[in-house]
Amino acid sequence: MHKAAAMLKVEVFSSPGCGKCVQARDVLREVVESLGTDKVSWREVNILEEMDYAVDLGIMASPSIAIDGKLEFTSLPRASTLRAALLRRLE
Amino acid sequence: MYAIGKLAQYVGVSTDTVRYYEKEGLLAPTGKTEAGYRLYDEDAVRRLRFIRQAQQCGFSLGEIGELLALKRSDEACCKDVRSVAIGKKLQLEHKIRALQLMSHALGELIATCNDEARPLDACPILAALESSVAKHAQGGRDA
Questions:
Q1: Among 3.40.1700.10, 3.20.20.70, 1.10.1610.10, 3.40.30.10, what is the CATH number of A8-90?
Q2: Could you report the predicted ipTM of this complex, rounded to two decimals?
Q3: Percentages helix, strand, coil for chain A, rounded to the nearest 5?
């Protein structure tokens, strides 16, 4: 019996009202969705509501991205950079 | 208009503090008297209060300079200031977490010392700190 591969978890930490985040975030969400919603999950985290969790992950700036509970990007990356980081983990 | 002493007294800081803020480029006199003494207007009072309030929120003088620049900028908006404030709050939360860990570590050390009458060379707190230093040095050599 095949063991189902663990789903990658992408979490984007930002605050509501961050205008510069909205458009860039939408592009990144499309990257994640294009890899398959059965393979990668996407969660938008309101940093003000989950400050303790953000501090747990070592987040010092907004916006930031964590993959599988580890801080990966301290600003929003290019779509190609995020895609490459996810593909490396999916291999 | 206020002379430097009056301004400092009005806002509750020392004249040295006012001069230091000037040196750091955060504040400037509006003009000078004929005798060359600095003079400040109401805007300087507001600015000085802003600096003090921002310092109380944990902002460094460099960061306060950025906030003041944002305040003056035509292109900046409330969101930019909010973003700086969120970054500062994150920094503070990290510091709080680090202080809690330090407090916890001290609590454990204090708990090991249950006899205040012991001689200093049998002090478990000092012994634990020394052993921690030795472990650190050993770890450094092993790395």
A1: 3.40.30.10
A2: 0.75
A3: 35, 25, 40
